[in-house]
Please model this.
Amino acid sequence: MEFRPGDALLVVDMQNDFCPGGALGVPEGDRIIPELNELMARAARLNIPIFVTRDWHPQNHVSFRDRGGIWPVHCVRETRGAAFHPDLKVPAGAAVISKATHPDKESYSAFGDTDLAERLRALKVRRLWVGGLALDYCVKESALDGQKLGFEIHVLRNLARAVNVKPGDDRLAVVEMSRAGVVIEP
Ligand code: VGL
Ligand code: ZN
Model:
């Protein structure tokens, strides 16, 4: 792919807890880091805005099993598990977007309860390239929301990995995004 003016790059939840060995490890989640690093470096050189999200939960977040949710405790803000993977090279100018910060609200989407849409509009962004974790949760919901908000969304399939709670969730996510008008890039 090639960046052009009006583009932005969104790197979703490349945090320790979503990588193998983490509290909610996504299979091969760390394998996409080198290519994401290259892409972020390329975007930075071209002055393409970069947004890097992080799941940033309070310790009593509603998505955790001890509160009736479906997930183990993960990405508790300020903890090691919530930190970006140490190999991820976030360029100096990138903006960090923290999401799902409210104890009683789940938000898989990078657009939920954040100012991401406003910031993209302020930068005159029309097209958004998306990669990261997890394809079947936060990447998918961010892509669907972005599309609804009027951005042209391109998901970089090879720069994302799925949790696959059920086998095939990755394929379902791709179908759902395609149907909504999201472009799935190889
Ligand atoms: C995510 C499960 C729970 C994600 C966040 O980033 O995809 N998945 N919280
Ligand atoms: Zn979460």
Q: What stands out?
A: The chain has one domain: 7-185. Residues 13, 18, 24, 55, 63, 71, 108, 133-134, 137-138 surround pyrazine-2-carboxylic acid (ligand 1) (CB under 6 Å). The longest strand covers residues 152-161.
